[in-house]
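Predict fold of Transport permease protein; 257 aa.
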Amino acid sequence: MRVLSAWHQYAFVIRQLTARELKRKYARSSLGILWSILNPLLSMAVLSLIFLNMFRRSIENYPIYYLTGYLVWQTFTLATTSAMTALPDNKPLLLKVRFPMDIFLLARVYTAGVNLVYSLIAYAVMLIVFGISFKWTMLLAPVYLFLLFCFSLGMSYLLAVACVFFGDVRHLYTVLLTLWMYCSALFYPVSQLSEFMQTVVRMNPIYAYISSLRGAVLDGTLPSGLVWLQMLCFGILTLLLGRTVFKFYRKKIVEFL
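Predicted 3D structure, encoded as tokens:
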């Protein structure tokens, strides 16, 4: 009973921290949380205007093709970049209140999940607008997104530890994300790349989630066995690794802060 009571309290704290993060994010915005809906739509509109003619023949329903990849990428980057600085940002609260440090990371990853839910509202509307019919493979989308969140949380653990001891990690990660984005095939077809680059992209963890979700929504197809293995390994193993590293450095993190 004590364990259940403690986790109930922790869940409450996570919800409160998430609400705080959302309020802080949209504090000076007139539209507030609506930007979670407008951002993917505006990005889709801009990229579609730029690349639609270029990829019209090779990609059917290009706006949805891009929007699907963008939502996965946005969720991952929002989760990891915000969670990376969660411990230094909450230093006063972390040192005064006896809560598990994980809560601060979980709250920021959870915030990215809430942001995704709002974005999916816009996504559902766009599917209707572009006449994308329902396919039973869409029912597996929550599985892909769950594994994405496992991978994001695992990366968040690793980045949070690194950021405490090496502050420059946040700047290096920003540069890495730029390269990572271009290797994730957000706005171009992988088939137009050289064989070597196709291999590089297909080894990219984020592309496994993007391609699986695109296949489910646009083509009604399932991932291959290799892609399933990639998603499971990247998601579960990264989470276990991140959690293990975080536990190992827990005391040192408190001492360093």
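The mean pLDDT is 83.
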